[in-house]
Protein backbone atom coordinates (compact mmCIF):
# COMPACT_ATOMS: atom_id res chain seq x y z
CA UNK A 1 0.00 0.00 0.00
CA UNK A 2 1.28 3.48 -0.90
CA UNK A 3 1.28 5.83 2.07
CA UNK A 4 0.65 9.48 1.21
CA UNK A 5 2.10 11.98 3.65
CA UNK A 6 1.28 15.70 3.76
CA UNK A 7 4.18 17.95 2.85
CA UNK A 8 4.32 19.64 6.24
CA UNK A 9 6.02 21.60 7.57
CA UNK A 10 5.20 24.04 4.80
CA UNK A 11 7.52 26.58 3.17
CA UNK A 12 5.60 29.25 5.09
CA UNK A 13 4.35 27.93 8.39
CA UNK A 14 3.71 29.10 11.95
CA UNK A 15 4.21 27.80 15.48
CA UNK A 16 0.57 27.56 16.52
CA UNK A 17 -0.69 30.15 18.99
CA UNK A 18 -2.42 33.43 18.13
CA UNK A 19 -3.30 36.50 20.17
CA UNK A 20 -6.55 36.03 22.06
CA UNK A 21 -9.31 38.36 20.82
CA UNK A 22 -10.92 40.72 23.32
CA UNK A 23 -14.22 38.85 23.36
CA UNK A 24 -12.42 35.66 24.38
CA UNK A 25 -10.38 37.43 27.06
CA UNK A 26 -13.55 38.88 28.55
CA UNK A 27 -15.33 35.52 28.49
CA UNK A 28 -12.42 33.75 30.18
CA UNK A 29 -12.30 36.44 32.86
CA UNK A 30 -16.03 36.11 33.48
CA UNK A 31 -15.74 32.34 33.70
CA UNK A 32 -12.89 32.59 36.23
CA UNK A 33 -15.04 34.98 38.26
CA UNK A 34 -17.97 32.53 38.03
CA UNK A 35 -20.08 35.05 36.13
CA UNK A 36 -20.75 32.66 33.24
CA UNK A 37 -20.89 28.87 32.89
CA UNK A 38 -18.38 26.70 31.07
CA UNK A 39 -20.97 26.14 28.32
CA UNK A 40 -21.23 29.88 27.82
CA UNK A 41 -17.44 30.18 27.68
CA UNK A 42 -17.24 27.35 25.17
CA UNK A 43 -19.70 29.11 22.87
CA UNK A 44 -17.38 32.12 22.75
CA UNK A 45 -14.36 29.89 22.19
CA UNK A 46 -16.15 28.12 19.34
CA UNK A 47 -17.12 31.39 17.68
CA UNK A 48 -13.65 32.87 17.97
CA UNK A 49 -11.92 29.72 16.70
CA UNK A 50 -14.19 29.63 13.64
CA UNK A 51 -13.40 33.31 13.03
CA UNK A 52 -9.68 32.51 13.40
CA UNK A 53 -9.90 29.63 10.93
CA UNK A 54 -11.46 31.93 8.34
CA UNK A 55 -8.84 34.62 8.93
CA UNK A 56 -6.00 32.14 8.51
CA UNK A 57 -7.47 31.02 5.21
CA UNK A 58 -7.87 34.64 4.12
CA UNK A 59 -4.16 35.40 4.61
CA UNK A 60 -3.05 32.12 3.01
CA UNK A 61 -2.00 30.07 6.03
CA UNK A 62 -1.51 26.45 4.94
CA UNK A 63 -1.57 24.77 8.36
CA UNK A 64 -4.75 25.76 10.19
CA UNK A 65 -4.51 26.06 13.98
CA UNK A 66 -7.10 26.76 16.66
CA UNK A 67 -4.70 29.36 18.01
CA UNK A 68 -4.62 27.49 21.33
CA UNK A 69 -7.69 29.60 22.19
CA UNK A 70 -9.00 27.06 24.72
CA UNK A 71 -5.75 27.11 26.72
CA UNK A 72 -4.35 29.33 29.43
CA UNK A 73 -0.81 28.01 28.94
CA UNK A 74 0.84 26.29 25.98
CA UNK A 75 1.85 23.33 28.18
CA UNK A 76 0.16 23.23 31.60
CA UNK A 77 -3.39 22.73 30.28
CA UNK A 78 -2.39 19.59 28.37
CA UNK A 79 -0.09 18.20 31.05
CA UNK A 80 -2.56 18.89 33.86
CA UNK A 81 -5.25 16.91 32.05
CA UNK A 82 -3.22 13.72 31.76
CA UNK A 83 -4.23 10.95 34.13
CA UNK A 84 -2.11 11.14 37.26
CA UNK A 85 -1.56 14.90 36.93
CA UNK A 86 -3.22 18.03 38.30
CA UNK A 87 -3.06 21.77 37.67
CA UNK A 88 -2.45 23.85 40.79
CA UNK A 89 -1.39 27.25 42.13
CA UNK A 90 2.23 27.54 43.24
CA UNK A 91 3.99 29.94 45.58
CA UNK A 92 6.15 31.33 42.77
CA UNK A 93 6.00 31.53 39.01
CA UNK A 94 8.80 30.87 36.53
CA UNK A 95 11.61 33.43 36.35
CA UNK A 96 11.76 34.94 32.87
CA UNK A 97 14.01 37.84 31.86
CA UNK A 98 13.05 40.60 34.33
CA UNK A 99 9.64 39.02 34.84
CA UNK A 100 7.95 36.34 36.93
CA UNK A 101 5.12 34.39 35.33
CA UNK A 102 1.76 33.63 36.88
CA UNK A 103 2.06 31.31 39.88
CA UNK A 104 0.66 28.15 38.31
CA UNK A 105 2.01 24.71 37.58
CA UNK A 106 1.36 20.98 37.39
CA UNK A 107 2.21 18.10 39.69
CA UNK A 108 2.11 14.33 39.78
CA UNK A 109 -0.64 12.82 41.95
CA UNK A 110 -0.83 9.32 40.49
CA UNK A 111 0.37 7.05 37.70
CA UNK A 112 0.74 8.95 34.42
CA UNK A 113 -1.48 7.84 31.53
CA UNK A 114 -3.44 9.20 28.57
CA UNK A 115 -7.19 8.67 28.76
CA UNK A 116 -10.25 10.79 27.95
CA UNK A 117 -8.23 13.90 27.36
CA UNK A 118 -10.14 17.14 26.55
CA UNK A 119 -7.64 18.06 23.83
CA UNK A 120 -9.07 15.29 21.65
CA UNK A 121 -12.34 17.21 21.48
CA UNK A 122 -10.39 20.41 20.86
CA UNK A 123 -8.77 18.78 17.84
CA UNK A 124 -12.06 17.35 16.56
CA UNK A 125 -13.67 20.79 16.62
CA UNK A 126 -11.05 22.36 14.40
CA UNK A 127 -10.99 19.25 12.21
CA UNK A 128 -14.71 19.63 11.63
CA UNK A 129 -14.46 23.34 10.76
CA UNK A 130 -11.24 23.55 8.75
CA UNK A 131 -12.72 22.12 5.56
CA UNK A 132 -10.11 20.77 3.16
CA UNK A 133 -7.24 22.60 4.89
CA UNK A 134 -4.50 20.77 6.76
CA UNK A 135 -4.97 21.08 10.52
CA UNK A 136 -1.91 21.62 12.66
CA UNK A 137 -2.31 20.65 16.31
CA UNK A 138 0.21 21.49 19.02
CA UNK A 139 0.89 19.83 22.35
CA UNK A 140 3.82 20.17 24.79
CA UNK A 141 6.67 17.73 24.34
CA UNK A 142 6.82 14.81 26.79
CA UNK A 143 10.06 16.37 27.99
CA UNK A 144 8.01 19.20 29.46
CA UNK A 145 6.40 16.88 31.99
CA UNK A 146 9.86 15.84 33.06
CA UNK A 147 11.02 19.48 33.14
CA UNK A 148 8.03 21.29 34.66
CA UNK A 149 5.97 18.85 36.73
CA UNK A 150 6.56 18.54 40.46
CA UNK A 151 7.17 14.86 41.07
CA UNK A 152 5.52 12.96 43.90
CA UNK A 153 8.12 10.53 45.21
CA UNK A 154 5.38 8.47 46.84
CA UNK A 155 4.17 7.69 43.30
CA UNK A 156 7.49 7.71 41.44
CA UNK A 157 10.42 7.07 43.76
CA UNK A 158 12.53 6.35 40.66
CA UNK A 159 12.44 9.12 38.05
CA UNK A 160 13.12 6.55 35.33
CA UNK A 161 9.69 5.04 35.98
CA UNK A 162 8.10 8.48 35.58
CA UNK A 163 9.91 8.90 32.25
CA UNK A 164 8.80 5.50 30.97
CA UNK A 165 5.15 6.08 31.93
CA UNK A 166 5.28 9.52 30.28
CA UNK A 167 6.55 7.95 27.06
CA UNK A 168 3.79 5.34 27.10
CA UNK A 169 1.15 8.02 27.74
CA UNK A 170 2.42 10.08 24.82
CA UNK A 171 2.52 7.08 22.52
CA UNK A 172 -1.16 6.58 23.34
CA UNK A 173 -1.80 10.28 22.75
CA UNK A 174 -0.20 10.22 19.30
CA UNK A 175 -2.30 7.22 18.28
CA UNK A 176 -5.46 8.82 19.69
CA UNK A 177 -4.91 12.05 17.77
CA UNK A 178 -4.14 10.03 14.64
CA UNK A 179 -7.34 8.02 15.05
CA UNK A 180 -9.22 11.31 15.33
CA UNK A 181 -7.77 12.42 11.99
CA UNK A 182 -4.68 14.38 13.01
CA UNK A 183 -1.88 14.17 10.44
CA UNK A 184 0.22 17.14 11.54
CA UNK A 185 1.23 17.20 15.21
CA UNK A 186 3.79 19.50 16.80
CA UNK A 187 5.64 18.90 20.07
CA UNK A 188 6.61 22.16 21.79
CA UNK A 189 9.74 21.93 23.91
CA UNK A 190 11.66 24.48 25.99
CA UNK A 191 13.70 21.93 27.94
CA UNK A 192 16.51 21.90 25.34
CA UNK A 193 17.21 25.55 26.13
CA UNK A 194 18.66 24.43 29.48
CA UNK A 195 21.67 23.26 27.46
CA UNK A 196 22.25 26.35 25.35
CA UNK A 197 24.29 28.51 27.70
CA UNK A 198 27.00 27.93 30.28
CA UNK A 199 24.79 29.60 32.86
CA UNK A 200 21.87 27.22 32.28
CA UNK A 201 24.16 24.17 32.19
CA UNK A 202 25.60 25.33 35.52
CA UNK A 203 22.05 25.47 36.87
CA UNK A 204 21.59 21.84 35.85
CA UNK A 205 24.77 20.87 37.67
CA UNK A 206 23.58 22.77 40.76
CA UNK A 207 20.40 20.65 40.63
CA UNK A 208 22.53 17.49 40.63
CA UNK A 209 22.10 16.80 36.90
CA UNK A 210 24.81 16.05 34.39
CA UNK A 211 24.15 18.15 31.24
CA UNK A 212 25.28 15.38 28.88
CA UNK A 213 23.05 12.81 30.56
CA UNK A 214 20.20 15.33 30.65
CA UNK A 215 20.57 15.80 26.89
CA UNK A 216 20.67 12.05 26.30
CA UNK A 217 17.45 11.69 28.27
CA UNK A 218 15.72 14.41 26.22
CA UNK A 219 16.75 12.60 23.04
CA UNK A 220 15.65 9.22 24.35
CA UNK A 221 12.21 10.50 25.38
CA UNK A 222 11.51 12.08 21.99
CA UNK A 223 12.72 9.13 19.92
CA UNK A 224 10.85 6.57 22.03
CA UNK A 225 7.71 8.69 21.93
CA UNK A 226 7.58 8.89 18.13
CA UNK A 227 9.00 5.47 17.26
CA UNK A 228 5.59 3.90 16.57
CA UNK A 229 3.96 6.87 14.88
CA UNK A 230 1.93 6.10 11.75
CA UNK A 231 3.87 6.49 8.51
CA UNK A 232 1.50 9.11 7.11
CA UNK A 233 1.63 11.33 10.19
CA UNK A 234 3.99 14.30 10.35
CA UNK A 235 5.43 15.11 13.78
CA UNK A 236 7.56 18.20 14.20
CA UNK A 237 9.15 19.79 17.25
CA UNK A 238 9.46 23.44 18.18
CA UNK A 239 12.49 24.25 20.31
CA UNK A 240 11.96 27.46 22.25
CA UNK A 241 13.86 29.65 24.71
CA UNK A 242 10.68 30.82 26.40
CA UNK A 243 7.90 33.16 25.32
CA UNK A 244 5.89 35.09 27.92
CA UNK A 245 4.60 38.63 27.42
CA UNK A 246 7.32 39.25 24.79
CA UNK A 247 10.14 38.22 27.11
CA UNK A 248 12.29 35.07 27.27
CA UNK A 249 13.54 32.40 29.65
CA UNK A 250 17.03 31.66 28.32
CA UNK A 251 19.63 32.49 25.68
CA UNK A 252 22.38 30.72 23.80
CA UNK A 253 23.06 29.03 20.48
CA UNK A 254 22.38 25.40 19.58
CA UNK A 255 26.08 24.46 19.58
CA UNK A 256 26.28 22.30 22.73
CA UNK A 257 23.34 20.11 21.69
CA UNK A 258 23.69 20.46 17.91
CA UNK A 259 24.76 16.91 17.08
CA UNK A 260 21.82 15.45 19.01
CA UNK A 261 19.20 17.98 17.88
CA UNK A 262 20.13 18.03 14.19
CA UNK A 263 21.56 14.55 13.83
CA UNK A 264 19.87 12.45 16.48
CA UNK A 265 16.15 13.22 16.71
CA UNK A 266 13.64 11.17 14.70
CA UNK A 267 11.11 13.92 14.05
CA UNK A 268 10.04 15.15 10.61
CA UNK A 269 10.84 18.80 11.15
CA UNK A 270 12.33 21.28 13.60
CA UNK A 271 10.95 24.75 14.25
CA UNK A 272 13.91 26.83 15.45
CA UNK A 273 14.35 30.30 16.91
CA UNK A 274 16.74 32.42 14.87
CA UNK A 275 15.20 35.87 15.22
CA UNK A 276 17.97 37.58 17.20
CA UNK A 277 21.49 37.21 18.54
CA UNK A 278 20.28 35.12 21.51
CA UNK A 279 19.89 32.17 19.15
CA UNK A 280 23.48 32.02 17.93
CA UNK A 281 24.66 31.32 14.39
CA UNK A 282 23.46 28.93 11.70
CA UNK A 283 26.69 26.89 11.91
CA UNK A 284 25.15 24.13 14.11
CA UNK A 285 22.91 23.27 11.13
CA UNK A 286 25.94 21.53 9.61
CA UNK A 287 25.01 18.53 11.77
CA UNK A 288 21.78 17.92 9.83
CA UNK A 289 22.38 14.45 8.41
CA UNK A 290 18.99 13.55 6.89
CA UNK A 291 17.67 14.85 3.58
CA UNK A 292 14.08 14.34 4.76
CA UNK A 293 14.45 16.56 7.86
CA UNK A 294 12.80 19.95 7.36
CA UNK A 295 14.37 22.91 9.15
CA UNK A 296 11.92 25.74 9.79
CA UNK A 297 13.80 28.98 10.33
CA UNK A 298 12.10 31.23 12.88
CA UNK A 299 13.53 34.44 11.46
CA UNK A 300 10.50 36.66 12.04
CA UNK A 301 9.89 37.58 15.66
CA UNK A 302 6.52 37.04 17.28
CA UNK A 303 7.48 39.16 20.29
CA UNK A 304 7.11 42.64 18.77
CA UNK A 305 4.99 44.23 16.07
CA UNK A 306 7.65 45.93 13.95
CA UNK A 307 7.76 44.28 10.53
CA UNK A 308 11.06 42.79 9.38
CA UNK A 309 12.83 43.84 6.19
CA UNK A 310 12.03 41.35 3.45
CA UNK A 311 15.46 41.45 1.81
CA UNK A 312 17.20 40.95 5.15
CA UNK A 313 15.16 37.81 5.85
CA UNK A 314 15.84 36.47 2.36
CA UNK A 315 19.56 37.02 2.89
CA UNK A 316 19.38 35.16 6.20
CA UNK A 317 17.72 32.20 4.48
CA UNK A 318 20.54 32.09 1.93
CA UNK A 319 23.05 32.24 4.78
CA UNK A 320 21.42 29.20 6.41
CA UNK A 321 21.55 27.42 3.05
CA UNK A 322 25.34 27.39 3.36
CA UNK A 323 24.90 24.68 6.01
CA UNK A 324 21.79 22.77 4.91
CA UNK A 325 20.12 22.45 1.52
CA UNK A 326 17.74 25.28 0.61
CA UNK A 327 15.25 22.59 -0.37
CA UNK A 328 15.09 21.45 3.27
CA UNK A 329 14.44 24.93 4.66
CA UNK A 330 11.14 26.63 5.53
CA UNK A 331 10.20 29.92 7.18
CA UNK A 332 8.02 30.83 10.17
CA UNK A 333 7.80 33.17 13.16
CA UNK A 334 10.30 32.23 15.85
CA UNK A 335 7.51 31.28 18.29
CA UNK A 336 3.77 31.58 18.77
CA UNK A 337 2.16 34.99 19.16
CA UNK A 338 0.51 34.01 22.44
CA UNK A 339 2.13 31.07 24.23
CA UNK A 340 -0.08 31.94 27.17
CA UNK A 341 -3.47 33.65 27.16
CA UNK A 342 -1.69 36.88 28.18
CA UNK A 343 -0.17 37.23 24.72
CA UNK A 344 2.89 39.05 23.44
CA UNK A 345 3.13 42.84 23.16
CA UNK A 346 1.80 43.46 19.67
CA UNK A 347 -1.55 44.01 17.96
CA UNK A 348 -3.63 41.37 16.18
CA UNK A 349 -3.03 43.10 12.86
CA UNK A 350 0.73 42.80 13.45
CA UNK A 351 0.55 39.00 13.57
CA UNK A 352 -1.32 38.88 10.27
CA UNK A 353 1.13 41.28 8.63
CA UNK A 354 3.98 39.04 9.73
CA UNK A 355 2.33 35.90 8.37
CA UNK A 356 1.65 37.67 5.06
CA UNK A 357 5.30 38.74 4.91
CA UNK A 358 6.46 35.18 5.59
CA UNK A 359 4.22 33.91 2.79
CA UNK A 360 5.53 36.53 0.35
CA UNK A 361 9.14 35.71 1.20
CA UNK A 362 8.56 31.96 0.87
CA UNK A 363 6.96 32.38 -2.53
CA UNK A 364 9.86 34.53 -3.73
CA UNK A 365 12.53 32.18 -2.37
CA UNK A 366 11.01 28.81 -3.23
CA UNK A 367 8.40 29.71 -5.85
**How many domain modules?**
1
- What does the largest sheet look like? 6 strands, parallel
The CATH architecture comes to Alpha-Beta Barrel
Shape: globular
Describe this structure in words.
A hairpin with a 2-residue loop joins strand 3 (95-96) and strand 4. The protein is globular, with a radius of gyration of 19 Å. The protein has a six-stranded parallel sheet. A two-stranded parallel sheet has the order 1-6. The chain has a two-stranded antiparallel sheet with strand order 2-5. The chain is built from eleven helices and twelve strands. Helix 6 (159-179) packs parallel to helix 8. With 367 residues, the protein is of the alpha/beta class.
Offer a quick outline of the entry.
About 40% of the residues lie in helices and about 15% in strands. The protein is α/β, with parallel strands linked by helices.
Question: Any descriptors?
Answer:
UROD/MetE-like_sf, single chain, alpha/beta, EC 2.1.1.14, six-stranded parallel sheet, TIM Barrel
Topology:
Layout: H1 22-32, H2 38-59, E1 63-64, H3 76-80, E2 83-89, E3 95-96, E4 99-100, E5 104-113, H4 118-129, E6 134-135, E7 137-140, H5 142-148, H6 159-179, E8 184-189, H7 198-206, H8 211-226, E9 234-239, H9 258-263, E10 269-273, E11 294-300, H10 310-320, E12 329-333, H11 348-366
Parallel strand pairs: 1-6, 7-8, 8-9, 9-10, 10-11, 11-12
Antiparallel strand pairs: 2-5, 3-4
Helix pairs in contact: 1-2, 6-8
Amino acid sequence: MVVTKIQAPFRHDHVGSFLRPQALKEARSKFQNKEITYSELKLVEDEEIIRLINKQKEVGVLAISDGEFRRSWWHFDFLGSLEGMEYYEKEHGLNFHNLETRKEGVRVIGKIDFGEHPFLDHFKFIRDHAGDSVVKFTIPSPNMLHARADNNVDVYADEKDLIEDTIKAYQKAIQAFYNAGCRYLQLDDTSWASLFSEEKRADLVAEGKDPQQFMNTLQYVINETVKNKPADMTITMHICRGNYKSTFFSSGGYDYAAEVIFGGLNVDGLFLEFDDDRSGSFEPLKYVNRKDLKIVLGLVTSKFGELEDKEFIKARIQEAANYVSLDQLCLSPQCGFSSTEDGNILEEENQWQKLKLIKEIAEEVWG
